[in-house]
Design a protein that fits this description.
The C terminus is likely disordered. By secondary structure, this protein is an alpha+beta fold. The chain has a four-stranded antiparallel β-sheet with strand order 2-3-1-4, covered by helices on one side. It has a domain of 106 residues: Alpha-Beta Plaits (2-Layer Sandwich).
Length: 270
């Protein structure tokens, strides 16, 4: 078949020249030897006797379970043994003042300072001492205090007035809770961390104003003025609509009278 092709095409089927021989870079093929391979049974006993002190690390699931177990054990200890050994308000050097003149204030904002409490509760009477309870157990606490305080008044009547009137007021955008001091006045009283307290925790931060429509949310201080302006505009629009309807009725009544006059005139003619 190829003998019928022209010489130009026969050159395409010509074999390539042989490759140039190069000696091997390491060993000649006839001189190469692979290492002898044996079994591993002779090393099994040595592997059993090997000990480097390796301790396997716990996974994130094991760590999570361990931390949860530690928290549960700590909470159980506080409820049983910790209450008997740790909670001693009569021996606490930070607790100063007459317990019958002391007011307990809780659910405070963590940005609340002593001057804020003095400004709010000073109107009920002279204050002897204000104590914001700080976190002394955490090495580097993220919050300034624990969110509750004790206010000692000079007169018990002022404390009673604050106890009746100050419950539920807002300080730093949070609704507070006031109560009498129960640690030194109520027998076998347990605070929350020892399994006691008076109730559950509640979210007391005020909700931000929600926007209405497609515009920007109303500012609380300017909401009354905006509402009054909207009401005035609505009343003006209603009065304008009523005037237009009255004018339309007057025009319609005038057209009816003209038609009646024209009909009477035509009847007289005929």
């Amino acid at each position: 078949m190829t003998d019928k092709l022209p010489p130009q095409l026969l050159q395409l089927f010509a074999p390539r020249p042989a490759l140039r021989y190069l000696p091997p870079c390491d060993h000649a093929p006839e001189d190469r030897r692979t290492p002898a391979i044996s079994g591993v049974a002779q090393y099994v006993q040595a592997a059993k006797e090997y000990d480097d002190g390796y301790v396997p690390s716990e996974s994130w699931l094991q760590k999570k379970d361990r931390q949860k177990m530690e928290r549960d054990e700590a909470a159980q200890y506080r409820v049983t043994e910790g209450f008997k050994n740790e909670f001693k308000p009569h021996e606490d050097p930070n607790v100063v003042g007459d317990p019958l003149k002391t007011l307990f204030v809780s659910r405070l904002s963590y940005n609340t300072e002593v001057k804020d409490l003095e400004r709010e509760f000073g109107r009920y009477g002279p204050i002897e001492r204000i104590r914001l309870v700080e976190d002394t157990t955490t090495p580097t606490p993220k919050k300034k205090h624990r969110g509750y305080a004790f206010i000692v008044f000079e007169r018990d009547s002022d404390m009673k007035a604050a106890y009746k009137d100050a419950d539920g007021i807002r300080i730093k955008d949070r609704r507070i809770l006031v109560d009498v001091e129960r640690g030194r006045t109520v027998k076998e009283w347990r605070p929350r961390r020892y399994g006691g307290g008076l109730g559950g925790r509640h979210y007391t931060k005020a909700a931000p104003p929600r926007p209405s429509g497609y515009g920007a949310p109303l500012v609380p201080e300017a909401s009354a003025a905006v509402v009054a302006a909207l009401a005035a505009a609505a009343s003006e629009e209603a009065s304008a609509v009523e005037e237009e309807e009255a004018e339309a009725e007057a025009v319609a009544s005038g057209a009816d009278s003209v038609e009646v006059t024209e009909v009477a005139t035509v009847q007289r003619r005929y």
